[in-house]
Specification:
Layout (H helix, E strand, L loop, with lengths): L1 H17 L5 H16 L2 H4 L1 H19 L3 H22 L4
Helix pairs in contact: 2-4, 2-5, 4-5
Length: about 90
């Protein structure tokens, strides 16, 4: 019986620590970065970087909807970086 309790306790701990939190901040950061890029004209002035950022954010949203929080976090961070590149390109900063 003690061995069973130990196994159940380990499974419970693994489940608790194995869960990944929803990437709320990362998604918000990516959306804000895209908004700023849009405001400086990235869709017209840096269309490739803008499209990449949008596609990454959309993929992050799909991953979030599917409950794949690790992937959503990664994609949101990549979307934010792409949006920053788009903003810099649109503003003439390369």
């Amino acid at each position: 019986m003690t061995r069973l309790r130990l196994v159940l306790a380990l499974l419970l701990l693994t489940g608790l620590f194995g869960c990944t939190a929803m990437p709320v901040q990362e998604m918000s950061d990516a959306r804000q970065a895209l908004q700023v890029a849009r405001e400086v004209g990235a869709p017209d002035r840096a269309p490739e970087a803008w499209a990449e950022a949008r596609a990454l954010l959309e993929a992050a949203e799909r991953a979030l909807d599917a409950g794949d929080y690790s992937r959503a976090r990664l994609l949101a961070e990549e979307a934010r970086e792409a949006a920053i590149r788009a903003r810099k390109q649109a503003a003439g900063g390369g």
